[in-house]
Amino acid sequence: MTSTRVIRGAIGVAGLLAVAELAGRTGLLDPAVVPLTSTVVSDTVGLAVDSEFLTDVSFTLIVWAVGLGLASLLAVSAGMLLGSLPRAESAVRPVLEFLRPIPSVALIPLVTLVVASDAWMKITVVVYAAMWPVLINTMYGLREVDPLAKETLRSFGFGRLDVLRRVSLPSAAPFVGTGIRLAASVALIVAISAELLSGGAGGIGVYIIKAGSADRVDLMLAAAMWAGVLGLIVNSVLVRGQRRLFRWHEART
Amino acid sequence: MLDVINLSHTYGAGPQAHQALGGVNLHVAEGQLVSVVGPSGCGKSTLLRSIAGLVRPTGGRILIRGAQVDGVPDDLAVVFQDYSRSLFPWMSVGENVELPLQRRGLDRTARRAAAAEALDAVGLGNAAAKFPWELSGGMQQRVSIARALAYRPSLLLMDEPFGSVDAQTREDLEDLILAVRGHHRMTIVLITHDIDESVYVGDRVVALTKAPARVAGDLQVDLPGPRDQIATRELPGFVHLRAEIGRLVRGKHADLLPNLLPNRSVH
Ligand SMILES: Nc1ncnc2c1ncn2[C@@H]1O[C@H](COP(=O)(O)OP(=O)(O)O)[C@@H](O)[C@H]1O
Ligand SMILES: [Mg+2]
């Protein structure tokens, strides 16, 4: 079942690449503007062992990881606090509803003024963007906790804090997991966008800008391919981790 | 041990208000096993949740050993009617049974031993490593009974605990409860809608009216010797009590409550 799906997916990708290659070879697309697929693919493979590019990747990954970690920590704590204090939640909700739609990259000029370090500026923007999915899923997960499960623990004499720690938190954990997985993709996109918009010492975005100014569209595309591949890897690792950790949740629903 | 004094409870307010309890009076002596029977929806669960401090009744008082119940009383265990929601799916069966024992200050080994013993007693000795959702409904119910028994509460509240197990298991569990209270001094309030069961396990049967629930009758069960699933149910005393409770519970609305007729017919 899964293997047939993988095979079909691979055929789809191969087909698309073949059509693009053909379009370039027949002159339908001008190879001077859009490089040949085969060129881009061989560049992509080449970048895997290009130490300059790998350094750029590590820049991006550090911003991504630190940003995602901080965002998760912050959002889970805030979500738990708001989830267990309904009055605070209704007070804070309008503020959240206002802040949430602000595109994080629009904050770059402001954050640049406030945060001096370039890496921390990017991390701040990533934290802002990645916080939302985690916060919203945590709050949703806490709302969905079965009241009877809480009452069961209470009936054995456990207090509020124990109920939060031993019932609400584990019950909401699968939702938090989903939030973090969504945030991971957002964080990668925002990290690279921040690099594209504000440059800096390194990063996949910075590499793409440099390739652009050197008129190397093929390298721009090859670097973008790697950004996509990284996103895929991160997502599939987290999906797998979630499945393993929250087997009980899937088994029940 | 337990005093319920003129207890009433109304859910909601205004036109949607529903009075579940209409002034229930009940005294349970230390070590007694009281069955509470009543028609479905009459307020049995509400009564039990009030005793457990999970529902704040709108009228009347509950005393446990003379102290007014305000919040969850100490040293109490509840077997909920909705057992599958009351087990924690992220924990194994053994961990579920062990969890409340942390309140008892037992160390890990002692907790594990107590959980294993309780699971053995309900016939699930080798299910400790399984997860609740891997078990059938009846087995899950037995786990929640094991969890309550392992805790050794001085007051055990059970809400239709054998409602969803097969007949054989049901008889085994009824006998298990009787055996357990022989060993450990526990006061037990067992709610059921099965009249036969209420007589078989109870020292006493309290029959409730339909909503708003009041005590319709309170009968001592004076049956000789250790109870036996076959012999006890044949006794004239048993048959007589069963009929009397049937009449009490059915009240004037016998035709509305066919599900309350004794389902283990010994005519
Ligand atoms: N949380 C609640 N809110 C409103 N009505 C309730 C609630 N819980 C129970 N009821 C109503 O109160 C009545 C008694 O319920 P319950 O105590 O569960 O009865 P029983 O356990 O005897 O079947 C029922 O009519 C039920 O619908
Ligand atoms: Mg009930």
Outline the structure in words.
The complex is a heterodimer of chains A (about 250) and B (about 270). With about 250 residues, chain A is mostly helical. Chain A has helices at about 1-25, 35-45, 50-85, 85-100, 110-115, 120-145, 145-155, 160-200, 205-215, 215-245, 245-250. Chain A has a single domain (about 55-245), classed as Orthogonal Bundle (MetI-like fold). Chain A has 11 helices and no strands. The relative contact order of chain A is 0.12. The model of chain A has no long low-confidence stretch (mean pLDDT about 90). Chain B is α/β, with parallel strands linked by helices and about 270 residues long. A 6-stranded mixed sheet of chain B has the order 6-7-8-3-9-10, with helices on both faces. In chain B, α6 links the parallel β7 and β8 (about 185-190). Chain B is globular, with a radius of gyration of 18 Å. Mean pLDDT of chain B is about 90; it is low at about 255-265. The interface of A and B includes residues 170, 246 and 251 of A. The structure holds adenosine-5'-diphosphate and magnesium ion.
